[in-house]
Amino acid sequence: MEDIKTELLLKSKRAKMESFGKFISFICILLIVIVVSLIIYFVASKGLATFFVNKVNLFSFLFGLNWNPGQVDVNAQPLVGAMPMIITSFLVTFLSAMVATPFAIGAAVFMTEISPKYGVKILQPVIELLVGIPSVVYGFIGLAVIVPTIHSIFGGTGFGILSGVFVLFVMILPTVTSMTVDALKAVPRNFREASLGLGATRAQTIWRVLLRAASSGILTAVVFGMARAFGEALAIQMVIGNAAILPSSLITPAATLTSVLTMGCGNTVMGTLENNVLWSLALLLLLMSLIFNIIIRMIGKKGS
Length: 304
What we know:
This protein has one domain (83-303): Orthogonal Bundle (MetI-like fold), CATH 1.10.3720. It has helices at 2-9, 13-52, 58-63, 83-114, 116-132, 135-154, 161-185, 189-197, 202-213, 215-231, 234-240, 257-264, 273-303, and strands spanning 67-72, 78-80. Strands 1-2 form a two-stranded antiparallel ribbon. The protein is mostly helical.
């Protein structure tokens, strides 16, 4: 009797495997949390050194218009105004998202509602191919095609925000399209059937029913694409001109936060002001990434 009782109290092999799996999952989650926390701490400690060690004024850093860390102004304050790069980063991001969103929605509607068969055979492989192309290839194509085209049409050097917008538009298009396709596929089929049963045309069903029902998913896709565009470095650096000045038009050279970082990271000495301000720019990028993630989660909760 005691042997039977002891055998019943012992964990089965499947229960032991489940406990082991939970333990491994917990270790992996804990490792991810630790790594992310260390990254945030490292970037924050380096970025905040600009203000606590080098005594740079935070207001001058965020809203200053002159970027030349090796020089000082009349008040003996270093010229580390990041406003031109901040404005350019947001401008390029929003414009590329505005251009990419209609194309992404149109492609997604074609793939899910108009011609799913040809959409899967033709558009899906193209989108997957665009996702796999490295950033440097996009940059070279922009340098060889987009920059000369803009130069011939609008004049100037061809380098500037407009070139960056077209490059980022192509880069974020597959991401926004794929997520929009998933959002449209998640709409229950009875929505379509009910709309068509009430006498609505296919175009009316798509415009008034499906797109509205999938609006939260589409907004999430757009914000996700904006986050990708905001953090892009190499491709945008190759076509924007890398002039850390306030842009006067879309066809004049400018610089983003990422382009200044990639140009200066290998040309500064660790611990100097020139290096610390680059870490401050990295901290700004990190904070913007967190803000984009918060927005995505808020949209997701609203949609659910």
